[in-house]
Amino acid sequence: MVLSNGIEITWKVPESKKLKKLQRMLSKKTKGSNRYKKLKQEIVEEHERITNKRKDIINKVTSLFYRYRMIVYQDDNFHVWHKTFLSKSIQHSSMGGITRRLSSNRRTPVKVVDRYIPTTQTCYSCGHRQKVELTQGEFKCEECRIEINLPYVEYCIVEAGIPLFQ
């Protein structure tokens, strides 16, 4: 996630190694036994730890956003992303939770840019539009010859969202 002032925020809360180990151990236990039940409870507690970490990140990121005068973000369809090669990274990043929290925000004006506006294909400097593969990682404008990393192209979201405030 990149903010309009160039600050890049990255985070990831993957499944812990302990959780994976506990799940492997659970698969070898006899269903209904006391050890099975104890292990199942440990797995529930580990899931709760991971959930608490994700909630903490959501709270910290949204509190950072509330320091700005306006918040503009693109309405991305995260449910479709779960079916692509990005599925694990989307699940571990809690982006859906952040957008849900921003949509219920009452402190700062929030506007949502339509998901069909091609922000990653539009140069934020000259407005030229060209096809870009998301796997490229860089946006090279053919008109003004500017080269920037793909996450920073999201400045176009702010430019697309400013008319929504007026």
Structure report:
The structure is a single chain. By secondary structure, the protein is mainly alpha-helical. It folds into two domains: 1-115, no CATH class; 117-166, no CATH class. The chain contains six helices and four strands, in the order ααβαααβββα. Strands 1-2 form a two-stranded parallel sheet. A two-stranded antiparallel sheet has the order 3-4. Strand 3 (138-140) and strand 4 (147-149) form a beta hairpin. The two termini are 25 Å apart. The model has no long low-confidence stretch (mean pLDDT 77).
Outline of the structure:
The protein has 166 residues and is mostly helical. The chain has helices spanning 17-27, 34-65, 78-81, 87-93, 95-103, 155-165; strands at 71-74, 110-113, 138-140, 147-149.
User: Spans of 5+ residues with little confidence (pLDDT < 50)?
Assistant: none
Sheet of most strands: 2 strands, parallel
Order of helices and strands: HHEHHHEEEH
Strand order of the largest sheet: 1-2
Shape category = elongated
* Relative strand content: 5-15%
Radius of gyration from the CA trace? 20 Å
Domain count: the total is: 2
Q: Give the N-to-C terminal Cα separation.
A: 25 Å
List the helices and strands and how they pair.
Layout: H1 17-27, H2 34-65, E1 71-74, H3 78-81, H4 87-93, H5 95-103, E2 110-113, E3 138-140, E4 147-149, H6 155-165
Parallel strand pairs: 1-2
Antiparallel strand pairs: 3-4
